[in-house]
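Weekly structure sync - notes
Attendees: PM, LS, DV (DV joined late)
Agenda: review two folding runs queued last week.

Item 1: First target. Sequence and structure tokens pasted below for the record.
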Amino acid sequence: MERPQDIFTGTVVGDEGVLSIDELARACGAESQWIIELVAIGILEPEGPETSSWRFHASDLTCARRVARLQRDFDANLDAAAVMINLLEQIEQLRAHLTQAGLDVDEAFGSKDT
């Protein structure tokens, strides 16, 4: 018996691509109100003076999806998710600085195989 295959569709958003609030919400499987809440607490910073003209970049999509995952996996509220996102960004910055300094990031943070 043949197994059904999953078919995924999507839109590629490059670094220069922009999304409206509705497109971002749809890409996250959320409502526009959730995106407005992310903006209100400072997780996302859209371009544009008012909600109807807000534009978001690919990095905003990545961030919003991270928040959704934190909420789903850890039952985190938005304030807790904001703190976690901030800490994750700081870790990424530290890793980048260590790499620029020529240090082995895995050695500095401990091997992922350990």
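Item 2: Second target, run right after the first with the same settings.
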Amino acid sequence: MRLKSITYENFRNHRFLRFDPSAGINLLHGPNGSGKTSILEGIHFCALTKGFVGATDNDSLSFSKDYFILNSIFCDDKEGDINVKITFTKEKEKQIIVNHSEIKPFSQHIGRVPCITFSPQEIVIVNGAPAERRRFIDNTISQTDRRYLDDLLAYRRVLLQRNAVLMHMNEQNEVYSDMLSLWTEQLTKLAASLIYARTKFLSLFLYQFKEVYARLMINEDPSILYRCSAGKISEDPSLEELYSLITNKFQQITKQEIARTQTLIGPHRDDLLFLLNEKEIKKYASQGQMRTFLICLKLSQHRFFSEIIGEKPISLLDDVFSELDEKRAEDILRILETYGQTIITSAVKKEYSNMTARSIESFGKN
């Protein structure tokens, strides 16, 4: 997958801008606040329907403007050119048009333009709350497995319904007992399917992750474990094993769930345990080790996509070189040489033989 061109209109601090990256490694350099990250975010919008820095669509409007437009052309080896246009106004919802056809729901677009990102804020994947790690694994699998994305969206809908029933049962309304059984059965099937897919993903991903990590670090042994809220699971659990485990756990905690009016187990409560030399990284690792761990997660994500879908995703790396020494930066660039199209932002210009560097100021007034 490659981005051929993208235009920005009233997006963040760009009133109008066009970007035509090269097919290999691109470096956008310039002072902080000049709009480098906004360029990456616009590409992310076109690939995954939203920005990657956690802002709302409304936050992406240029100051005093009431609409923005992103118009991009990607190309791959299978479908040829893919035109993705995104428009947003304060009065109407966001509109996504792919090859002149509107896409609804937006989830139908996920996976069409595979994309990985790195930004300093994403360090929370390594040292933050479990929800950040769940988001990482969900986003990764969803771009390569349509069934997983459909199950994930269905799980979230059923979870809301089940929690609503628990709320009513807390009010001593026994008429909801049969309804709870119905929603629990649906949730259990979806939960088992999601956890099964996650464990299968990790068994493939961990091998790639260890290989990438070994190219950047020596004498360190990284690992990733799946922590299931329903109880201990085997290294390679079957779908039936997971269904049985979740069913039994729900039976044990029904009264507790009614008292707390919420579903206490399931994929929405699970976590990934990141280890370095058998110690939990968020508790014992240095900032440098955590940042390297995150970079390796992202580089391994790229390799996973490439192997599963047979298409190299676009890499969007925001300020990836900060806090890294020159050797580590060069090691990363050598890996990226084989990764297809990469767009990197940096406050300072870097010199590397196989990289196209461009100052943000060269785009002209924006």
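Discussion on item 2: DSSP finds ten helices and 14 strands in the chain.
Action: LS to circulate a short write-up before next sync.
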